[in-house]
Structure formats: C-alpha cells, structure tokens
Amino acid sequence: MTNDSLIFDFQAQQNTTQWLVINDGVMGGLSKGSIAMNEAGNGLFSGFVTTENNGGFSSVKYAVSKRDVSHFDAVKIRVKGDGKIYQFRIKSDQTKEYSYVSEFKTSGDFETITLPFADFYASFRGNKLGIPNYNGKRIEEVRFLIANKKDEDFALEIERIWLG
User: Fold this and answer.
1) Which terminal Cβ of the chain has fewer Cβ within 10 Å, N or C?
2) How far is residue 136 from each of residues 5, 44, 133, measured CA to CA in Å?
3) What is the DSSP string of 11-24?
4) The pTM is what?
5) How far is the C-alpha of 73 from the C-alpha of 136, rounded, in Å?
6) Cα(160)–Cα(72) distance, integer angstroms
7) Cα–Cα dist 77/60, whole Å
8) Are strands 74-80 and 58-68 parallel, antiparallel or unpaired?
9) With 0-12 CB in 10 A as exposed, 13-18 as middle and 19+ as buried, what is 31?
10) Is residue 10 within 8 Å of 77, Cβ to Cβ?
11) Could you state, in chain order, the average pLDDT of each consecutive group of 10 residues for the chain (164 residues)?
12) Which residue from 64, 67, 59 is spatially nearest to 18, judged by alpha carbons?
C-alpha cells in the first residue's frame, strides 16, 4: 500500500481524535453513536439507532486533506461488522451538502470490502439525487453511517480505509 492510497489506518494512528460523530440529534432524533479505540487497536463505531422522535441514523466522519484520487477506481475498507448494512459516504467537495453513497453488508467477520467509485450515488438527507454518480476525481471527506429504518444496536470495527 502506498502513502497516496492510504486514507486512514487505526492500527498505525491509534487515535480517534480526527473523527467526528454526527447523530440524528441534529434533527431532533435520539440515536447515540460513538467512536473509540478498542483493545485490538482498531476504531470501534458503535451505539444505538432509534427511529423515535423522527430519528434513525448515526455516523462518524473524517476530513481528508483535499486529494486527487483520479488514478484510483475504488475505496477499500477493512472492517468487522455485526451483520448489518452500513453506508460508506464520500464528499468530493465539503461545500456541497450532498454526499456520494455506497452501501455494504457486513458478515460478522473481518473482511476487506471493495467499493467501486462508479457505484457511489449522490444523496442528500436520505434521498437519492438525480445527478451523475461519483466521478472519482477528488475526496475531501469520508463517513460511515448506519440508517436501516429500525431501532437497533450496532458495532462496526474499522481497521483501515484506502484507495485501490
């Protein structure tokens, strides 16, 4: 793995201070998520999502230094989930309100998941937008989000995020 392909490696960086949790409380919801280092040296994004009070999501984001990614065609994530569906989101421009979204299902085991740039669709507040999919040219932010329209506990262990 080259330095220009690495987005974040919890094993190497051993902290979560650059990650920001955003829960549905920004809209009045009551979901609770957090990120912390676990004993294995990975980031653990975990909590509880509730649809109560018009809620239903929890997320954690990392601001990437503006980066040209045009010589890559996918994001790869090394994660251990809980069998639930999560979203990985990319912002190509932090001044835009929308993100590009790709969903992935976890298996309960550690796995490397490849998310091709061409599969990321534009979304704002859970609504798919009628604009082209992600063009794979620039990244300024990445985010993990859970929003399965039901009340549930969640836990996603994150080892590494890189470009491929």
Assistant:
1) N
2) 13, 27, 9
3) HHH---TTEEEEEG
4) 0.96
5) 7
6) 17
7) 15
8) unpaired
9) buried
10) no
11) 87 96 93 98 98 95 95 98 98 96 98 98 95 97 97 98 97
12) 64
Q: What is the pLDDT of residues 121-157, one digit of tens each?
A: 999 999 999 999 999 999 999 999 999 999 999 999 9
Contact between residue 163 and residue 69 where contact means Cβ atoms under 8 Å apart: yes
* CA atoms of 35 and 89, how far apart (whole Å): 17
Which pair of structure tokens corresponds to residue 29?
């919801």
14 alpha carbon, distance to own chain's centre: 18
For the chain, domain boundaries:
6-163
Cβ atoms 79, 113 nearer than 8 A: yes
Instruction: Note every long-range contact of 90-96, with CB atoms under 8 Å and residues 24 or more positions apart, other chains counting.
Output: 90/120, 90/134, 90/139, 90/141, 90/142, 90/143, 91/139, 91/140, 91/141, 91/142, 91/143, 92/134, 92/135, 92/137, 92/138, 92/139, 92/140, 93/138, 93/140, 94/63, 94/140, 94/141
The tokens of 139 are what? 């990244």
The answer to whether the beta carbons of residues 86 and 146 sit under 8 Å apart is: yes
User: Is 6-163 CATH 2.60.120.430?
Assistant: yes
Two tokens at 117?
């740039």
